[in-house]
Amino acid sequence: MDRTSIAIIGCGNMGGSIAKALSESNNFAVSVFDSDKAKAEKFASENNASVLSCISDATAMDVVLIAVKPQILPSISEDLKNLKPGLFISIAAGFDIATLEKMLEGKVARYMPNLAARTKKAVTAVAFSLSMENSDKKLAMDIANSFGSAFELEEKLFSAFIGISGSAIAYVFEMIHQIAMGGVREGIAYPKSLEIVRDTFESATSLLKESGLGAVELETMVCSAGGTTIEGVKALEDGNLGATLINAVSAAAEKSRKMEAKGR
What we know:
The chain is of the alpha/beta class. Helix content is 53%, strand content 15%. The chain contains 11 helices and 8 strands. It has an 8-stranded mixed sheet, with helices on both faces. Helix 7 crosses helix 8. The protein starts with a strand and ends with a helix.
């Protein structure tokens, strides 16, 4: 079976994680470029990938995935435009599809992944232009699913996605840390407490995914009348956790919308 050739432009945390996941698949022939050539060469030597000496070496690739920082993109747009791949995929925040299509003069899919790409557990929002063919949509979804789970969303919902996933993964880390610190307060050493809390979060998400039940249904199953859990839930309510989390989602989404408006 012919492999899809894909060039990853940028080997930072996200680009490198995506490239690593794709290089471990038999479906993709991965090439990487980074302005730091030593970084690209090190990545290629440790993974099943080739190094591009310059962006123009990515000419005629099936897919070019742009993983550079948003402020870098305009400075390399001319080089990218000359590549003429079958499909561009961008993870650059702040540039909508209409802007990218005008800049790159090609078909563009847009990704919004989160940090867990490095463990092939990323949650990625995917948006397409209205004119995108189904075969290109399938390819873009297949690539995103290779490093986690992908959700097709209207582009106007990307800011909301950032609030509940792209940025929210950090909120989860914060909750894990603080609950672990609660364990420390009660006498469990932090490393052990953190390990327990980490596995508790994993067990909760697994149960939520596999049971088909809603979060509220599962929460009420844990809360016995007059028991320990309802006391803890009451403390969360007294601390206004629900409103705080909702406000955190809205704050990240609003910042995203401002960045998007600036990038147009």
